[in-house]
Every structure is written in C-alpha cells, then in structure tokens.
Amino acid sequence: MFKINGNAAVGQSGGPTxxxxxxxxxxxxxxxxxxxxxxxxxxGMVNGxxxxxxxxxxxxxxxxxxxxxxxxxxxxxxxxxxxxxxxxPSAEAKPEVxxxxxxxxxxxxxxxxxxxxxxxxxxxxKKIAEHAxxxxxxxxxxxxxxxxxxxxxxxxHSPGFGSAxxxxxxxxxxxxxxxxxxxxxxxxxxxIMGRDAGWLTMSAALPRFYGLGAPDLIYLPExxxxxxxxxxxxxxxxxxxxxxxxxVSEGIRDADGEYICESAGSKEKDIFGHTWLSGTAxxxxxxxxxxxxxxxxxxxxNTPQRCAAHAASAAxxxxxxxxxxxxVCLAAEGMTGVMASIIRTKKTPYESEIGYMDIGMxxxxxxxxxxxxxxxxxxxxxxxxxxxxxxxxxxxxxxxxLGGLPVHFIFKKG
Amino acid sequence: MFKINGNAAVGQSGGPTxxxxxxxxxxxxxxxxxxxxxxxxxxGMVNGxxxxxxxxxxxxxxxxxxxxxxxxxxxxxxxxxxxxxxxxPSAEAKPEVxxxxxxxxxxxxxxxxxxxxxxxxxxxxKKIAEHAxxxxxxxxxxxxxxxxxxxxxxxxHSPGFGSAxxxxxxxxxxxxxxxxxxxxxxxxxxxIMGRDAGWLTMSAALPRFYGLGAPDLIYLPExxxxxxxxxxxxxxxxxxxxxxxxxVSEGIRDADGEYICESAGSKEKDIFGHTWLSGTAxxxxxxxxxxxxxxxxxxxxNTPQRCAAHAASAAxxxxxxxxxxxxVCLAAEGMTGVMASIIRTKKTPYESEIGYMDIGMxxxxxxxxxxxxxxxxxxxxxxxxxxxxxxxxxxxxxxxxLGGLPVHFIFKKG
Lengths: 414, 414
What we know:
Two copies of one chain form a homodimer. By secondary structure, the first copy, chain A, is of the alpha/beta class.
C-alpha cells in the first residue's frame, strides 16, 4: 500500500464551478485515507499559486473537521479556497518566481502538490513539475481537472461540466415552456458559455434526448457562423412553429474568424490573451428583430452556469470527489507531472474509472466537440452527442439548507 | 354544503410563473370536491380569454386524469393552458366582444369562470363579472391571483412570488460565492424583474436573514435612483470589501421619473402601455467601469425568475393549489366579482388562510413595497421585509425527472 509521507498543498485556480469544491473534498478524503495521521498536514493555498507566492496558506485539517463540514463543502459552489488567474512565466524568463514558490514549498515542507484547474492551471502544473525535477526538489505535482467548458484534453470529460450541463439543460427546457405560452411569433435567443468549445451549448439540446422541450436551433463555435443562413433558418422555422428557442455559444465566429458578440469590437483581453465575450445573443436578437420583425428576447445564462450548485449533478459531484481522491493516490504512488483523468470504460450503461495522463499531453490544448456530435447543417447536435452528455447529469444533490436557501462552506482565511 | 351545479371554465392570463399551474391544479381539485360527478365539465380556455373568443377550448377532465397527471402539472412552469396579453375593452366601446364571450359561455353552458392572472387579468374579471350582472347572465366569475411581481392588492402575497423569490435568493447567494473567488476588485450588478414594485429585488437580500452571502447594495423602484450617489456608495464600499454584489430592479428611475435602463430611450411599450425594460444593469455597469475602473460583470436574471420550476418553493406551490381550490369554493358559495386572496393570520410561526376580496379593490392597482421594508439610505431592505418573505420560500418540490431533467405536463390543444 502506497502512503503519503509528507505534507501536501492543494490549490484551486481558474474560473469557479459547482463541483470544484467536491474535488477538493476528494483530495481531503484521499489524504485521510493515505496518511498515517494528521501530523502530516494538508495545506490550502488561498487564491491559488498567486496567493501561495504571497504566503496565503491555511490549515485545511483544522477547518474541515467532520463529515458535516465535508458534505457542506462538497455542495458549495465556487472555489472555496479562492482562485486566481495567474499566468506562471517560464523559469527562464522569471527564475525568481520559481525560487519563491520552492522556498514556500520548503517553508511548509510540502512534498505533494495538487492543483485543481483547467487548461491554464495545467500549464502551471507542467512548469512546476518540470522545475522540481530540474532542481531535484522532491515533490509530486498532480493536476486535477476542473472546467465547466469540458475543453480539457486527456479526460473523457471534466469535473464541473456535468453540473453546468444539467443546469443549462434544465433551464433550457423551462425557457422552452415559458416561451410557448403566447399565441404569437416569438424568438428567444439564449447565450451559453464556452469560448472555443461547444460542449455547454450542446447540452442545451439534452432535453430532446428524453422527448422534453429543447431549442430548435443550436450553434456551436466549432462551425463557422453565417448570419444570412441563420436568418433564413429562423424565417423558415417560423413558418411551421410560432415560438422558437435558439441556443448559441458566446464564442461563435464568422467566416473571417471574427466573433459575433458585440464586445468583440472592444478587443478586451484577459491576461491569458482570451477575449472577453458577451452580447452574442443581443447582437443576433437585434438582427432577427430587424429582419423578421417578430418579438425577440435574448437571455445570457451567465454566471449561474458555473455556480448554480442548487441544480448540480450528483453524478458530477461524486466523480469530482473520486477524481480528487485518485490524485492523492497517484501522488502516493510516486507519480508527478500527471493529471488525474476520467476514463469512460463503458458507454451503456455508463461506467467510468479514474486514470491519469501525462500533463504534457494536456496543457495548453483545447478539446473541441467532434464532428460526429454536430448535425450536417451545423445548427443542431446529434443523438450520439447527447448520449455522451446524458450520464453526466444524473442525480440531484442533497443540499444543506436554511429557510429553503442553500448554505455554503466558508474557509476562514485571515 | 355548497355545490358546483354547472360547467366551469378556467383560463390563465398574463406572464407565466412557476406556480400558475399549481393554481390550475387547485381549481381542478376544487371542482372534483364540489361537483357531483364529471358530467359537470371543467373546460380550459387555451390562451386565455383571447383564445376563448376564437373558440379554443379543451376538456381538462379528459387530460388531467389521475394523481400522476396532477403532480406533473403542479410542478410544470409557465401557463400550461397557454396565456394571452389581451386588454379587454369596455363594454361600451366594444359591445360585440362581450356578445362573443357570452355566446361562448352559453355554447358550453358555462356557469363558473375562474381566471388566473395578475393586475390586468383582474381587470378582465371585473369587466366580465359586471357585464354578466348587467345582462343578467348566471355566471360566477372569480379571479385567482398569480404574479411573480407580488404587486397585486388585496392579498398578503401572490402565488408565484414565493417560487420566484426562492430562485432569486438562491441564485444571489451563489453569485456572491462566485464573485468572491478572486483577490481583485470586482463588482457584479444583477438586474431583477419588477417594473413598478421591488418585491422580487427585495428577495435578493433574503440570504442575509440566515447569515448567508447576500448583495451589498439593493435598489428598489420605490426609491428615486441617484446615479451619483450610487457611484459614491460603490466607491465607499470597495474601500473595505473587494468583491461587491449589487441587486437592482429593472424599474429603477431617476428624479425625473426616467428609467435608468438602456432601452428606455426606445420607449417600446406593450399593449397595456407598459414600457419594455432591459439593460438597467448594463447601463450601471458601464458607469461603474468608467468611474471606478474595476472589473464589472452584469447579470440579468431574466426569464428563469418566472420559470425556474426546478427551484420552486414547495410552500408557494401548496398555497397556489389552496388558492385555486378556494376559488371554486367561493364560486360554489355564490360569490362573483371577487378574487381569492391569501391572508397571513399569524406572523411567527407563519400561518395563512385563503379568503377573498372584492375585485374592484384590486384591478388596475399596484401594491408597492412599504417604507418599513426599505432602509433609511434607500440602498437595502430591513429585517422586517425579509421576515415577510422568509416563510414563502420554504421547502423543495419533488419533481418528476427523466435522466435528471425536469419533465413538464403538456396539454393537447389541437
């Protein structure tokens, strides 16, 4: 039996999700299973590697003390440890940053490091693992996947995606019901997150898999978006159906690669060079109103996609815990520079196990929706695509509530 | 014991809610309790009084056949019978419309009419009840309240409000968690429905009642909105707290009575003369970004406020059923021109019963948030206000689901 023989640190990074704390729970569970006793510590980085550099570290063991804490944390949305969007420079460009990080590791005698995040965070994992090897510092660095966007390579899907997909699919079928009440032409355009990959937008179609109300047209960023063809499709559909619901990814672009969204003009970028997108539905709504003259409503599903823990997927939360647990096992087994990853071992009925993948195969890559999941006209998704998503949204979480409202776990960070 | 001795019709009107079908369920239940047998029919108006005028009528008894149908309908959002936004003209201006309505009543031998709706629908109830009396047509016309806005007079609160309030409160506490993850200044401005009354925006503060994460500043349409004071308040708060969440009503106006929202310029109005509002948060977001330069995100909670049945309040759904049931009792007792209304008989612990109110006291009026519920600086709500909302959001509904997604009842209308 492999054991955890030294202190560990865990951090959360990138955009929050409804399941990222369930993964943290998995790391805590894994530590408790594989360390001899709580003299071996689990430290939490506050605000990820950026906070760690500034010395912001908490003792997780002192705060997650019992099963009740664990359950509350598991159902808490958004990074409970705090997050960061910090681009770790290369060791060549900024050796002093690495010196500082490894000084901190030494200060707390940290021998295991778990970093829960998406693409950009896996880049951090890769760089720190490589640097540790180079300077011969004994630490096992393990990435743990997290992203609602589901665009991480090397894993069948990412923890956090299932909950976001469930929220989107549930909300879309409700919006379809809402939009159908009047006997007048009406078009609702919903905007869904996912800059470069259409997984979340795809999940808007999931209700159709069960014969429930679902959007009529769905546009993913994997296909070039043609405004003229879009208007024709809507016009055509309105001839046979009065109330249409359309789902578009925030990241759809035209044939020139230009984003459709209204903020594209401002070219605002974050520190990773990603354009800040918003207003795609608003732009299309104005076009439909102008061209077809019918009633149009636009809806950005917005932040609740990544934080509506009240509507999370129990299947997703459970797999998130398992992924965190497995990360600790991988570290105990002596692995480093790998990411815990979910392997779909059986399609029907769905079965999965948690394996691992070399971090070099993952960092800085984007997994887009495959052609087989998009229909031939590029305005909907296939049943194969829905079959892929279906098992990930099963089950409802049992939330702790006060007066009917969800209660969240809050770490003391002071 | 009073009995229902003739056929009845029920219609739904105005904007949909998560609880309007629960009220319809109550009418069905009440009919089954008070009619001798199902030879006495319950008809459904498809698309409200407008559809009824066009002869769109269905046999509800043939479609809601058993307890399973009843439970499914109870948890279905949006008007399952279809709705309308139809302004009934006065009998003097358009006698032919009334002739047509009463011809239809005669055609189906309808002796009881239940109309589930908000302010505008109660105007319809009033006019039809008055006309029936004038022409001596034997029909009992009963209004049944429904509005997420909670702005109906004559009832402690309206069915539908509790579910919307619960969705808003739950989502706000999740948004607060989401916004707190980064160690950088960040302002989130959420826009909440309610053109003339701030009840829904008030409910954004409910998590505070239980010590949960809640917005820092809250602006209702009952107070003049001063942009300069708003910017100062945000600037001041940012000195002691990095991540702020603000809730604003879509209907806030400046000292000149002008709406803050960006669409105010277009002066688009619906058939009731109500301005179509949208973009209040977007306008304020641009101002904060310009004046303070910090990260700003704006979120319109949008349609899910009225259709997120997956997050409905069990207390609201149960009261909605009871209100519908009571409407049938009132009709059986020989009442007409009244609205079933909820009376809060005890504050703590909350107790209520369903009474009734003369429709003349209700139609075309707006119940706004009283002064006692708004704090002295006009940027938050009082604990008294939250105590009013708290009992209305208790309990979670047990949804019928397929593959984790909510299933909805659909009437055959063809």
